[in-house]
Amino acid sequence: MSSEDGDMENQAELEEKTRLINQVLELQHTLEDLSARVDAVKEENLKLKSENQVLEPRPYQRTGLTDPLILLKPETRFCL
């Protein structure tokens, strides 16, 4: 094997290592981006759950009644 063959082999190994390092760095950035996205989605999910609790139907709505005054005693309905 000549020194020229050895140099070409070393160059090919160096190029392969460089390619692999670049691929690892790209995957690392992709993972960081995905992790940030997951965190953002979790936050949004918590926010929406909180909003949904505020918007949940009230007890009188669950029973099919639409007017909360119906739940009041007849003598107190018009004393509001």
UniProtKB/TrEMBL annotation:
GO cellular component terms, A-Z: cytosol; Golgi membrane; trans-Golgi network
Chief place where the protein resides: cytoplasm
Membrane-spanning regions, if any? Answer: none
Q: Known InterPro entries for this protein?
A: SCOC
Tree of life domain: Eukaryota
Residues in a coiled coil are 17-51
Topology relative to the membrane: Peripheral membrane protein
For this UniProt record, give its keywords in alphabetical order, as a comma-separated list. Answer: Coiled coil, Cytoplasm, Golgi apparatus, Membrane
What is the annotated localization of this protein?
Cytoplasm, Cytosol; Golgi apparatus membrane; Golgi apparatus, trans-Golgi network
Protein family according to the UniProt entry: Belongs to the SCOC family.
Purpose of the protein: Positive regulator of amino acid starvation-induced autophagy.
Q: Which protein are we looking at?
A: Short coiled-coil protein
Q: What is the lineage of its organism?
A: Eukaryota, Metazoa, Chordata, Craniata, Vertebrata
